[in-house]
Design a protein that fits this description.
InterPro entries: Quino_amine_DH_bsu. With about 250 residues, the protein is mainly beta. It is built from one helix and 19 strands.
Length: about 250
């Protein structure tokens, strides 16, 4: 957009949720002939590239820290201290990665761990200040991974069941922490904590171990759920991630 005679705006946008965009704008104003007002150049606040994270303490076993890693400055920031009696103890997990996902629309983080009474705790944390907002303990089995659909504002979990090598993808009601609907069950495969999510095709991607090989599976989170595919892999994946730049 141009505002004659000497003002101009340049900008870019990105999607941060359903019907939500973030604008990054720069503006420059050239000095008008005969005017005492100097030229100016201004930019909106730069986009911050961070990874939300939990940090352990090598000296204390009863607390964990919530914060983020600033990728632009290569440093980490601690925002709050969380007691394992409230949010569970990440060290008690049988899987290496603590389930954690981010809701950009409400700027909150969901995480899960097991407390000292062996209850599965789903915690909701304010991502800006690290304050624990509330916890739920109604999920019966251990959560393997968490994924959040930023377009449809839905929380999904990959969770164990009471049967060995039988896991399921479930939508969680974020108002009370209860199961909303079971979208798919995967049997005959040992779960791993490797997962990703596509908010465009609305599929939950999983890596599992089946017989003597790894297996790549996709579960629909729309149209009533269901398994889209399960494909054997001839290599050992370390991680998977769905990325997108354009819609």
């Amino acid at each position: 957009m141009v505002f004659p005679p000497f003002t101009d705006l340049i900008g870019a946008w990105k999607c941060v949720g359903k019907n939500r965009i973030e604008l990054r704008v720069g503006a420059y104003n050239l000095q008008l002939p005969g005017s005492n007002v100097p030229a100016s150049l201004a930019f909106s606040k730069e986009d911050q590239h961070v990874i939300h994270a939990l940090f352990g303490d090598i000296y204390k076993n009863d607390i964990v820290y919530y914060g983020f890693v600033d990728l632009d400055k290569s440093k980490y920031n601690i925002l709050s201290t969380l007691n394992i009696d409230d949010v569970g103890n990440p060290r008690k997990r049988k899987y290496q990665i603590v389930p954690l996902t981010y809701d950009p629309s409400n700027d909150i983080v969901f995480m899960s761990a097991i407390n000292n009474q062996n209850k599965i705790i789903l915690s909701v944390i304010n991502a800006t200040n690290g304050m624990l907002l509330h916890t739920f303990n109604s999920i019966p089995n251990e959560i393997i991974s968490l994924q959040y659909d930023i377009f449809n504002n839905k929380l999904f979990v990959h969770t164990e069941t009471n049967d060995e090598n039988l896991t399921q993808i479930v939508e969680i009601d974020t108002n009370n922490g209860n199961f909303k609907q079971i979208l798919g069950q995967i049997s005959g495969a040992k779960p791993t904590d490797i997962s990703s999510y596509c908010p465009i095709c609305r599929k939950y991607f999983l890596v599992m171990f089946e017989n003597d090989h790894f297996m790549y599976a996709a579960v629909n989170t729309s149209d009533g759920g269901g398994i889209s595919w399960r494909v054997p892999l001839n290599f050992s994946p370390l991680n998977i991630r769905f990325t997108y730049k354009k819609f």
